[in-house]
């Protein structure tokens, strides 16, 4: 399974799995089925309404042009903007569009992806998109390459939730070291736990200590304490563990 590392706005690197080409195709077919169903229901309802009210056939043509055509044309763009990088099919498959630099995709990013669907999917019958997603390191079709985006599985490979965080160990009779640790958010604590998990899984990876050190530096700065206590890998890990434990004790 291909993976990709994305650095978040908090300078935390999180590893995500890339969905398979098959999963992306299934998401596309789910969206297609929804479009066909929505189109059929709306068309039948409007035909019924036209017959009941005795409206001219021109009204049906106008309805098709103003409602049904835009539904087919703008569905993917509208969904990704409204649902934060997901269409209904993508949500069903647990995948999402993200920026490679960790930023939230902008309207122009979504527009770029949508504009090149014609080339990636429609004009080439999906062959170009399949070739690029399969052949590129980051699983990008042409629209993704130009927009600086890719599609990931929603859950990271190092996903940690708050329940898991609270079950780290027993804190009976534990005395917190840094009482100001409550300045951190739950999301920041989950990020610290994710980084510690990564350090345990990949202790010899080149950037593991750099990531730990950078995280510890940011944490110390937020706690307004000296950074002299953690000059080596073990001290750095111990400091972050302490911050994590203090947070759980003081906020649970």
Care to give the gist of this entry?
This protein is mainly alpha-helical. Helix content is 60%, strand content 8%. The chain folds into two domains: 3-153, no CATH class; 162-251, no CATH class.
What do these coordinates show?
The chain has about 250 residues and is mainly α. The strands form two sheets. It has a two-stranded antiparallel ribbon with strand order 1-2. It has two domains: about 5-155, no CATH class; about 160-250, no CATH class. Strand 1 (about 5) and strand 2 form a beta hairpin. The two termini are about 35 Å apart. About 25% of the residues are buried. It has helices at about 20-55, 55-80, 90-95, 105-115, 115-120, 125-135, 140-145, 160-165, 185-200, 210-225, 235-250; strands spanning about 5, 15, 95-100, 150-155.
């Amino acid at each position: 399974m291909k993976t990709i590392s994305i650095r978040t706005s908090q300078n935390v690197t999180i590893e995500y799995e890339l969905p398979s080409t098959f999963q992306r195709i299934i998401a596309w077919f789910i969206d297609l089925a929804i479009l066909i169903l929505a189109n059929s229901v709306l068309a039948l309802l409007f035909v019924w309404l036209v017959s009941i009210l005795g409206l001219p056939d021109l009204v049906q043509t106008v309805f098709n042009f103003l409602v049904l055509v835009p539904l087919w044309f703008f569905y993917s763009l509208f969904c990704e903007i409204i649902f934060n990088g997901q269409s209904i099919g993508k949500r069903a498959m647990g995948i999402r569009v993200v920026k490679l630099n960790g930023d939230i995709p902008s309207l122009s990013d979504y527009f770029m992806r949508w504009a090149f669907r014609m080339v990636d999917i429609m004009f080439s019958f999906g062959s170009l998109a399949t070739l690029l997603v399969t052949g590129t390191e980051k699983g990008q079709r042409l629209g993704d390459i130009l927009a600086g985006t890719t599609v990931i599985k929603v859950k990271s490979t190092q996903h940690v939730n708050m329940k898991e965080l609270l079950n780290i160990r027993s804190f009976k009779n534990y005395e917190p070291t840094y009482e100001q640790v409550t300045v951190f958010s739950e999301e920041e604590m989950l990020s610290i736990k994710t980084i510690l998990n990564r350090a345990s899984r990949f202790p010899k990876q080149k950037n593991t200590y750099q990531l730990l050190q950078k995280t510890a530096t940011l944490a110390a700065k937020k706690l307004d304490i000296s950074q002299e206590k953690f000059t080596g890998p073990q001290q750095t890990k111990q400091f972050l563990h302490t911050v994590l434990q203090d947070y759980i004790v003081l906020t649970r």
